[in-house]
Amino acid sequence: MPVTAVTDLPVVELFSSIQGEGPLVGCRQVFLRLAGCNLDCAYCDTDFQPSKCARIETQPGSEQFLYWENPLESTRLLAHLSTWKHQQPHLHHSLSLTGGEPLLHAEALKAWLPQLSTLFPIQLETNGTLPQALQLVIDQVEWVVMDIKLESQTGEPTPWAQHGEFLRVAVKRSCCVKLVVGPGTSESELVQAAQLVRDNAPDSEVFLQPCTVAGQCSLNGRILLQWQALIAEQGVRVRVVPQTHCFLAVL
Ligand code: SF4
Description:
Belongs to the radical SAM superfamily. 7-carboxy-7-deazaguanine synthase family. The chain is about 30% helix and about 25% strand. It is an alpha/beta fold. It has a single domain (about 10-250), classed as Aldolase class I (TIM Barrel), CATH 3.20.20. The strands form 2 sheets. A 10-stranded mixed sheet has the order 4-3-1-2-5-6-7-8-9-12, covered by helices on one side. The longest helix has 14 residues, at about 75-85. Iron/sulfur cluster binds near residues 41, 46, 99 and 101.
């Protein structure tokens, strides 16, 4: 059996694109998507299954890919990203560490992020349910973008206790909360989510993200205006940002 180093990672893909969601919307980022997830959200359209090979973009934005066998050695990924940085030192704002749920690999990330973060500041995109894993890497990330998973959208009970504990760790860095909302969202769960943020991470901003269905925003502006006001009433800053990369037709 091959020996897997603690820094080896099961990678789905590595590519360069425009961030379409959240606080860094519009920024050019490197996206590193890791395999595996601990949740099963009804709306999930992300391919996070572990596979034999990871697809690695050859040049930023080229949409041409190499296929490297998993798990990937961190040194190999680092060498590839160092080349990107050397060729276009001002192109990327940051690196988005995403999934799946990247914190499933917190031990490997803890070993690897000190080197990676010398190339790009790290934005962690997470489902906000693994607070102990976050503790391992929190000092190496600049931004934490965490979901509060609303039952109306995921089809599973919202893990309120884990989200609260997660927020209390995430506040060590720049932290914000994404709420994916859709036609079935209830006002009571929006209020509960806003109060959880207010009570555990009062400086964090909430991003209301309407579900995208068939390339269109699933909610009209009138209901989004109401929900934004409802969250603001709880004393929480709130922005409405749909998934812009869908309209741009980029990865
Ligand atoms: S947490 Fe994210 S990746 Fe995991 S199932 Fe839910 S939407 Fe998909």
